[in-house]
Amino acid sequence: MLFIEYPKCSTCQKAKKWLTEKGIEFEDRHMIEENPTKEELETWYRASGLPLKRFFNTSGMKYKELNLKEKLPDMSEEEQLALLATDGMLVKRPVLVGESFVVTGFKEKEWMEKLGL
Prior knowledge:
Layout: E1 2-5, H1 10-21, E2 27-30, H2 38-48, H3 61-65, H4 68-71, H5 77-84, E3 95-97, E4 102-104, H6 108-115
Parallel strand pairs: 1-2
Antiparallel strand pairs: 1-3, 3-4
InterPro entries: Arsenate_reductase-like, Thioredoxin-like_sf, Tscrpt_reg_Spx/MgsR
Protein name: Arsenate reductase family protein
Family: Belongs to the ArsC family.
């Protein structure tokens, strides 16, 4: 499993602690030092079944600075994925990528369901 995080993010810290306490093994990846590529994001988006907007960190400063609330509805999926790949701070965190699922953000109930706990 791949756990993509921003280490200073309290939600990421909480999710990481939760995974560790559950004894779940994962590979850790810093989303700023190693921003997800457009190809990765597209693969995860398709595998997740989630709306593409769920991959955006809508409460982040970068999202607000770029006025994405107004711009996203007029952008194609291709443009949105390319934009997400430009800056890890635009990506909703954490992202957990398993063999048969992808989840964004940390909602314990959703994660338990996806992990079969």
